[in-house]
UniProtKB/TrEMBL annotation:
This is ABC transporter permease. CDD domains: TM_PBP1_transp_AraH_like (cd06579). It comes from Actinophytocola gossypii. It is a multi-pass membrane protein. Keywords: Cell membrane, Membrane, Transmembrane, Transmembrane helix. InterPro entries: ABC_transp_permease. Its main location: membrane.
Length: 331
C-alpha cells in the first residue's frame, strides 16, 4: 500500500522536463529520418521493403536489451553485464530445452526468470552491499562470460530438433507476409515496458530515485528495495534477449554477447535518457536502437569496413553523451 507521504515524494515529473523529453525524442526521430534519407540516396539497395524488415529484425536484440537498461539508467545506474548475461541466458535456454528436454513454454519462462535472477544479484550487490553499479555489473559481466563457456562446454547448443523455438524469431505470424515474429515480440515488449514506466508505481519510483535518491528515501520510500526490483526487472529483458538471439541463430553461442552492452547503452543515451538519471523514455530508446541498426545496415550496404563502422558508432555515442551534458547544463 502506498502512503500519502510516498505519493508526495513521487509526484509526476515537471511539465518542463516532460516537454524537454518530447523535444529530445523529436530530435532523435529527426536524426533517424536524416540517416535513412542519406542511405536511401547513397545506395539503391537501401530503400526496399526487404531491407526495411532487415533493419527492424536487427533491432530486436539491441532494442530488447536497451528497454531493460532504460529502467536502470533512469535510476542513475548502469549495467555492463547485459551482453554476456544475454549469452549466458541463451546457453541456459539450450540447457533447459535441449539438454533437459523441458517443454518449450517451460524452458522459455525459465530462461527469462534466469535473466531476472542475474538482475536480482546485481540489485542486491548495488543496493544492499553498496558496490558501485559500474563495478558490480562489470563483475557480473565477467562471471556471466565464464559461466556461459563452462555450462556449454565452450561449444554451441543447437536447436535443430526444436523448430518451434527458431520460429519465435524467424517465423511469420501473419501468413504470406514477410514480417518476422521477433519484431512483433519487440513491439509488444516495448508497449508493456512503456506502460510500466509511465503508469505504475515501479515507473514512478524509477524516475524518483534517479531524480533525487536522497529526497526519495526521506519521503519514506524503501529505495534499496525498489533498486533491487528495477535491476531484477531489467534482468528479465536480458533473458528475453537471450531467447531472441539464440532463436535467430538456431543455436546458443556462448561467446556472442560481448559488445552488445555498449550498443544497448548507446541506444538508450541516443534516445534521450540521461546518464545522470531521472529522465528517459521507452519510445526514445527504440528510436535510438533504430538509429544504431540503420547506421550499421547502411554502412554495410555501402561496403564500409567493420573497423570504420565502429569508429562512426563511437563518434555517434560521443555526440549523444555530449548532448546529454549540454542538456544538464541548460537545466
Amino acid at each position: 500500500m502506498v502512503t500519502t507521504r510516498e505519493k508526495s515524494g513521487v509526484a509526476g515529473r515537471p511539465v518542463g522536463a516532460v516537454v524537454k523529453g518530447r523535444l529530445q525524442q523529436l530530435l532523435a526521430f529527426a536524426s533517424l529520418i536524416v540517416i535513412f534519407a542519406f542511405f536511401s540516396v547513397a545506395s539503391p539497395f537501401f530503400f526496399t521493403y526487404g531491407n526495411f524488415t532487415a533493419i527492424l529484425f536487427s533491432t530486436v536484440v539491441i532494442g530488447t536489451l536497451a528497454i531493460g537498461t532504460t529502467f536502470v539508467i533512469i535510476t542513475g545506474g548502469i549495467d555492463l553485464s547485459i551482453g554476456t548475461g544475454m549469452a549466458l541466458c541463451a546457453v541456459m535456454s539450450g540447457v533447459f530445452i535441449v539438454n533437459l528436454d523441458l517443454p518449450l513454454a517451460v524452458g522459455l519462462v525459465a530462461t527469462v526468470l534466469f535473466g531476472g535472477l542475474m538482475g536480482l544479484v546485481n540489485g542486491i550487490n548495488i543496493a544492499l552491499l553498496k558496490i558501485p553499479p559500474f563495478i558490480a555489473t562489470l563483475a557480473m559481466m565477467l562471471v556471466a562470460e565464464g559461466l556461459a563457456l563452462v555450462v556449454s562446454g565452450s561449444a554451441p547448443i543447437y536447436f535443430s530438433e526444436e523448430p518451434a523455438y527458431t520460429k519465435i524469431s524467424t517465423g511469420n505470424l501473419i501468413p504470406g507476409v514477410d514480417f518476422p515474429n521477433a519484431v512483433i515480440v519487440l513491439i509488444v515488449v516495448a508497449v508493456i515496458a512503456g506502460v510500466l514506466l509511465t503508469k505504475t508505481v515501479l515507473g514512478r519510483y524509477t524516475y524518483s530515485i534517479g531524480s533525487n535518491e536522497e529526497a526519495t528515501a526521506l519521503s519514506g520510500i524503501d529505495v534499496r528495495k525498489w533498486k533491487i526490483a528495477v535491476y531484477a526487472f531489467a534482468g528479465l529483458f536480458i533473458g528475453l534477449a537471450g531467447i531472441m538471439i539464440s532463436a535467430r541463430l538456431g543455436s546458443a553461442q556462448p561467446a556472442t554477447g560481448m559488445g552488445y552492452e555498449l550498443q544497448a547503452i548507446a541506444a538508450v543515451v541516443i534516445g534521450g535518457t540521461s546518464l545522470s538519471g531521472g529522465k528517459g523514455s521507452i519510445v526514445g530508446t527504440l528510436i535510438g536502437a533504430l538509429i544504431i541498426s540503420t547506421l550499421n545496415n547502411g554502412l554495410q550496404i555501402m561496403s564500409i569496413p567493420q573497423e570504420w563502422q565502429n569508429v562512426i558508432l563511437g563518434c555517434v555515442i560521443l555526440v549523444a553523451v555530449y548532448t546529454d551534458i549540454l542538456r544538464k547544463k541548460e537545466a
